[in-house]
Design brief:
eight-stranded mixed β-sheet; oxidoreductase; Phosphoglycerate dehydrogenase; Rossmann fold; D-isomer_DH_NAD-bd; NAD; alpha/beta; 18% strand
Length: 327
C-alpha cells in the first residue's frame, strides 16, 4: 500500500527532527517555489514557514489534502471559506507557546509598573535618583482572549497578585478563572483595567476589536500589551493615545504591518516597547513544534482523531476542543 505524502513547507530555517516519519510517510520538504509541484499529491501539509503566503487556494491546488498543520498559534493566513467548507482538518501549535508568551507579558508589565526604563536611563547617565514605583499586586488586568495564551497570561499575572479578568467571544463561567466576560462588555471593562493584554486571534470578528472608541474608554494612564495579532488593535488610534498621554505606555509584539516600517512613530516613543514578534521564541520552541507535529502525524497515519483542532469558521481552537476526545 502506498504511503501518504506529507509535504513540509520550510523557509529560511530548515526543519529538523522529522527523520523518523520517513518510516511512516513519504516526506517531501519544499520551499515556496517548490510547493506548487508538490501540492497535487499532498495529503498532509506542515506549514513550518507559517509566515509564508505560498499556501493559498489549497482546496483547488491540493485535491488529496486531508490535514494541514500550522507551526503557529494564528491560522489567519490560511483559513478561507473554501477551506472551511472542504472538510480538511486544521491543527495549530496549540499549547506550545502559552507559557512562553505569558512570561513575556509578565516581564513587560513588571518592567512598566516598576519603571525599569527610567532606571536604565538613569544608570546610563550615572544619575542616583530614588523614586517610588507601582505594586503589581492589586492592579487590575483585562486579558482580551480566553484561549490558551490568554489563560496562561491570567494564571501567571494572577500568581503575583494581580486581579485578572478574561474576556472572550461569549460570556461564560470558567472553573479556573471565574466569570469570563463577553466581547460586548469590552468597552466597559477596559475602563476598569490598569493593564489590558490583547491575546486574541485574528478573525473577522476580532479585526479592529480594540478600536479607537475602545482605546478612548481605557483608563487614563493604563498600559496595553499586544501579543495577539496587530490587526486586532487600531494602531493609529493607539499611537494617538500614546502621544497624547492618555495611555502611559504599551508593549507591542505584533503590528498591522510586519516588519514595522522604519518611519512608524512607534519606534521613537520612549514609553513603548517594540519587539519583532518574538514573545514566543524561547529555548526549545522549534524542537517543541517539531515534537508536536511528530505526535500528531503518528496519530494521523494510524487513523486516530487529531486534537485539538481549529474550527475553520471561527479561526481558532474553541475551548470545548482543547481536551482529548472522551476526556
Amino acid at each position: 500500500m502506498a504511503r501518504p505524502q506529507v509535504t513540509v513547507l520550510q523557509g529560511d530555517v530548515a526543519v529538523q527532527g522529522l527523520e523518523f516519519l520517513q518510516d511512516l510517510v513519504d516526506l517531501v520538504v519544499v520551499d515556496a517555489d517548490g510547493l506548487p509541484a508538490a501540492l497535487p499529491s499532498t495529503q498532509a501539509l506542515f506549514l513550518w514557514d507559517f509566515f509564508s503566503d505560498a499556501a493559498v487556494d489549497l482546496v483547488a491546488r491540493a485535491p488529496r489534502l486531508t490535514w494541514v498543520h500550522v507551526a503557529a498559534a494564528g491560522v489567519d493566513r490560511l483559513v478561507t471559506p473554501e477551506l472551511a467548507a472542504s472538510g480538511v482538518v486544521v491543527t495549530n501549535a496549540h499549547g506550545v507557546f502559552d507559557r512562553r508568551i505569558a512570561e513575556y507579558v509578565l516581564a513587560c508589565v513588571s518592567a512598566h509598573l516598576k519603571d525599569l526604563p527610567t532606571t536604565w536611563q538613569d544608570q546610563a547617565g550615572r544619575r542616583w535618583r530614588t523614586r517610588e514605583t507601582t505594586d503589581l499586586a492589586g492592579r487590575t488586568v483585562l486579558v482580551v482572549g480566553a484561549g490558551g495564551v490568554g489563560r496562561a497570561c491570567a494564571r501567571l499575572l494572577g500568581a503575583v497578585g494581580m486581579n485578572c479578568r478574561l474576556l472572550a467571544r461569549t460570556a461564560r463561567s470558567d472553573p479556573e478563572h471565574g466569570q469570563v466576560l463577553g466581547v460586548d462588555e469590552l468597552s466597559e471593562a477596559v475602563g476598569e483595567a490598569d493593564v489590558v493584554v490583547v491575546a486574541a486571534p485574528l478573525t473577522a470578528q476580532t479585526e479592529g476589536l480594540v478600536s479607537r472608541q475602545v482605546i478612548a474608554r481605557m483608563r487614563p494612564g493604563s498600559f496595553l500589551v499586544n501579543v495577539g495579532r496587530g490587526r486586532t488593535v487600531d494602531q493609529t488610534a493607539l499611537t494617538d493615545a500614546l502621544l497624547s498621554g492618555h495611555l502611559a505606555g504599551a508593549a507591542l509584539d505584533t503590528f498591522q504591518v510586519e516588519p514595522l516600517p522604519p518611519q512608524d512613530p512607534l519606534w521613537d516613543l520612549p514609553q513603548v516597547l517594540v519587539s519583532p514578534h518574538t514573545s514566543s521564541r524561547t529555548g526549545s520552541w522549534r524542537a517543541d513544534l517539531v515534537a508536536q507535529f511528530r505526535r500528531l502525524c503518528a496519530r494521523w497515519v494510524a487513523g486516530e482523531t487529531l486534537h485539538p483542532v481549529v474550527d475553520p469558521e471561527l479561526g481558532f481552537v474553541p475551548a470545548a476542543r482543547t481536551a482529548p476526545p472522551g476526556g
